[in-house]
Each structure stands twice: as C-alpha cells, then as structure tokens.
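Below is a filled-in request sheet from our internal design queue. Each sheet records the structural input a requester submitted and the sequence that came back. We keep these sheets so that new team members can see what a complete request looks like end to end.

REQUESTER: design group, bay 2
PRIORITY: normal
MODE: inverse folding
CHAIN LENGTH: 226
BACKBONE (tokenized):
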C-alpha cells in the first residue's frame, strides 16, 4: 500500500524511507526508493535528521513494528510527534515481536500467549497494552493520526486512503503524521493465515478500535486552532 501510494502520488524519486533494525530490517529489499537504516527504535530520530537536512519537497517516512516503535522507540516517537516533525510513521501492530521469535510486545493483549507470557499476559505482571494512536492524539504536534487494518478488503481500502492522507499532510507541511496498521503474525500466533485474520478482527479490533484519532485539517475547517 505504501508503494502504491508513492507511485500514484508520483513522489517515489523524492521519498526517503527510514527502516530500523528489527521487524522492517529488510524493507530496503521491498521499496524502490532511497532508504536509511536506523538502530532499533531510533527511526523517528534518524528521520528527523533526514527531513531537516534535505529540501522541503522531500518526503520521509519510517516503517516500524510494535516492538520497535512502542518499546525501545517510545521516546523517539513521542518527542518527534511533540515537535510536529514533518515525517510520516507507518506503524505495524501485530501484538507481538514478530521477527525475533514471538515475545510479548507492548501491544500484546491481556491473556495473549507469547514466548515470554506462556500463561498469557496479565495486567498485574505486564500492564495493559499501549494504545499508540490514543496517546499521540493528545499531543499538539501531530497533524493526522489514524488506525487501520488489513484484515479484510474494506479495511485495506481504508488503509490506503489513510496512508495517502498522511503523505499528503506531510507534503503540505502540516506536521507529524502516523498510520497504525493492525496486521497478523500467523507464525508466532500459531494460526493459519485465514484463522489469523479472524483472530485479529475478534480480538484486536475491540482493544484497538479503527478510526481517525486526530485530524487538524478538519479542526481548522471547523474554525478551531491548530
């Protein structure tokens, strides 16, 4: 979807991807645009440097998993959002550390079994899952914050529109944008791909409701402050 949006907007030649070591470590194999590799969790900080050092017409995005963004990378994410950095974060949430073997992530659901929560995540031991969109929507810096899913065709269409909007806001200079994408991890969930789609919709959607959590364009249109 990200690649399709880049091509449809005709911005591929001026887009720079920042992929951290971790879930998106091989992203440079899948995107035909310039890219920079960042240390685990540090992609927003690296993207900030890239964005500030290049001409204003460049487009910069990070592609990060939940273990990367919402654990070791929490500070970089929050402060980039607070500053209103003109970058876009594509945040993939599959409620688990997908690439490193299936450990509990900050987004792991209560009761969910992982390699490090063999009896299921509990609030007493591990707290509740982090809701990134809800948290960032309280800050003044972000321009557009949305949560989407890719578990059904109707959701995929919505996801593409959200990614298009996030890039459009960045190009317009409105500020920080983030699209959280609920996704599956059949291998570490121990499910077939089809069953994983159903598990996502039955278990993740109630905890991570889809929708637009911040949209300053709508607020401005209604006469509110940025």
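RETURNED SEQUENCE:
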């Amino acid at each position: 979807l990200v690649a399709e949006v880049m091509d449809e907007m005709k911005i591929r030649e001026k887009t720079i991807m920042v992929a951290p070591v971790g879930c998106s470590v091989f992203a440079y194999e899948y995107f035909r645009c310039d890219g920079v590799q960042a240390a685990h969790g540090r992609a927003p900080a690296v993207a900030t440097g890239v964005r500030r050092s290049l001409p204003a017409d460049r487009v910069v995005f990070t592609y990060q998993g939940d273990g990367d963004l919402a654990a070791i990378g929490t500070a970089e994410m929050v402060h980039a959002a607070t500053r209103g950095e003109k970058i876009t974060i594509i945040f993939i949430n599959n409620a688990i550390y997908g690439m490193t073997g299936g450990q509990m992530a900050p987004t792991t659901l209560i009761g969910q079994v992982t390699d490090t929560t063999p009896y299921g995540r509990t609030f007493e031991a591990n707290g509740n899952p982090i809701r990134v969109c809800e948290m960032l929507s309280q800050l003044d810096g972000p321009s557009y914050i949305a949560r989407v899913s890719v578990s059904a065709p109707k959701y995929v269409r919505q996801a593409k529109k959200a990614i298009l909007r996030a890039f459009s806001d960045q190009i317009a200079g409105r500020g920080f944008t983030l699209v959280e994408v609920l996704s599956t991890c059949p291998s570490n969930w121990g499910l077939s791909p089809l069953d994983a789609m159903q598990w996502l919709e039955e278990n993740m959607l109630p905890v991570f409701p889809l929708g637009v959590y911040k949209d300053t364009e709508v607020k401005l249109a209604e006469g509110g402050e940025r």
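SHEET NOTES:
- The chain has a mean pLDDT of 94.
- The longest helix spans residues 153-171.
FILED BY: M.R.
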